[in-house]
Design goal:
316 residues
C-alpha cells in the first residue's frame, strides 16, 4: 500500500462550498444496487443471466468504457470510423457512468490534478471517497459550466454528444435499453415454445442480470482504478502522484489497472508496457485494427517514458 504524505490532505475552503447532492447519481446508483440484489431471488436466477453479466462486462465495460470513453474520447489514443465511435460510446452510455462530455471532463481533470486538491476522486480524502463517494456530491467547481469549457469543448462540438447533455435523452436511452433486454428474453422463450409465465420469468431474469447486475459489476470495476490503483501496487514510473500498477485491478478491468503506466503516458492506447502486463483492451483494439476498424493507434512514447522512469530503473 502506498503511503500518502501526511501533510497532503484536502482542505475544503469556503469557495468550494456548498457541495450539492447529485440526486441523479444518488437515486440511480442506489436503485441499480437495490435491483441487482434481486439476483439472489431464486425465481430470477438463470445461467443465461450469469453469462450475460460476464459477457456484458466485456462489451459494455471493456469496449464501451475502456475503448470508447477512455482511450478514444478522452485521450484520442486511436482513430476509427464514426460509426464505430458511435457504437462504442453508446455501449459506454448504457453503462450509466454519465454523459460522454462529463466522463471525459472529469477524467481529464483527474490527470491534470491527480492526487491534488482539485482531483475529483483522490484517495487522499479516503478510500471510499475515491471509489464512489465523490459521485454523490458535486462541488461548484465540478459543475458542467465550470469544467466543460476547459476539458470537454471538443466533445461538445459533436451534436450527438451534445444531445446527451439533456437528461431526457441520456436517461431515456438507458431506460430504453431495459425494455430491449426484457423484450429479448421474453420473445426468445415464446419463440421456442415456452409459456407466457416462462417468458415473463426469463425476461425478468435477463433484465436483472443483463442490465442491473452487469452495470453494478462494471461500476465497481471502473471505480477500482480510482481507489485501489492509487493506493496498492507498484510504480514503474515517477509520475509525481500516487498512481499504481495493480495486477488484480488490471486483470478484472482488462488492462485499466496498469494505471501508473497510463499516467506516465496518457495518450498511449497500450497500458501494459511489460510483456506480462496483459492488456485485453489493447488487444481488442488491435483486433479492430486488423479488420480495418481502427488506425493510428498511439503506442507508448519511449522518449516520454524515459523522462519519468525512476532512477533505479534507468539503464546506463
Amino acid at each position: 500500500m502506498s503511503q500518502l504524505p501526511k501533510d497532503t490532505e484536502f482542505r475544503v475552503s469556503s469557495e468550494r462550498e456548498p457541495r450539492r447532492i447529485d440526486w441523479v447519481n444518488v437515486v440511480g446508483i442506489g436503485f441499480y444496487h437495490a435491483v441487482a440484489l434481486l439476483a439472489f431471488v431464486p425465481w430470477l436466477f438463470s445461467w443465461t443471466g450469469v453469462v450475460l453479466t460476464l459477457f456484458g462486462a466485456y462489451v459494455f465495460g471493456t469496449l464501451g468504457i475502456n475503448l470508447g470513453y477512455h482511450r478514444l474520447l478522452t485521450h484520442r489514443g486511436y482513430q476509427c470510423p464514426k460509426a464505430v465511435e458511435r457504437a462504442l460510446v453508446l455501449l459506454a452510455i448504457l453503462s450509466f457512468q454519465d454523459t460522454p462530455a462529463r466522463w471525459v471532463a472529469v477524467h481529464r481533470r483527474h490527470h491534470e490534478h491527480s492526487d491534488e486538491e482539485p482531483d475529483p476522486h483522490s484517495p487522499i480524502v479516503t478510500f471510499l471517497w475515491a471509489h464512489m463517494g465523490w459521485l454523490f456530491v458535486r462541488p461548484p467547481e465540478m459543475e458542467r459550466t465550470q469544467i466543460y469549457p476547459r476539458y470537454a469543448k471538443d466533445i461538445l462540438r459533436d451534436p450527438y454528444y451534445r444531445s446527451m447533455e439533456k437528461q431526457t435523452v441520456y436517461l431515456g436511452t438507458i431506460i430504453a435499453s431495459w425494455a430491449v433486454f426484457f423484450a429479448a428474453g421474453f420473445a426468445f422463450v415464446l419463440a421456442t415454445g415456452g409459456t407466457g409465465a416462462e417468458a415473463l420469468q426469463f425476461g425478468a431474469s435477463v433484465l436483472v442480470w443483463g442490465v442491473f447486475v452487469r452495470t453494478v459489476f462494471v461500476w465497481h470495476l471502473t471505480w477500482s482504478v480510482n481507489s485501489f490503483a492509487h493506493m496498492f501496487g507498484y510504480r514503474s514510473y515517477d509520475t509525481g502522484e500516487e498512481s499504481r500498477n495493480n495486477f488484480l485491478v488490471a486483470l478484472v478491468t482488462n488492462g485499466e489497472g496498469w494505471h501508473n503506466n497510463h499516467h506516465a503516458d496518457p495518450r498511449s492506447a497500450r497500458h501494459g508496457h511489460r510483456w506480462w502486463e496483459v492488456d485485453v483492451t489493447y488487444l481488442s483494439l488491435r483486433a479492430l485494427a486488423a479488420v480495418g476498424l481502427a488506425w493510428k493507434i498511439a503506442e507508448p512514447n519511449v522518449h516520454r517514458l524515459a523522462s519519468v522512469t525512476p532512477a533505479s530503473e534507468k539503464t546506463s
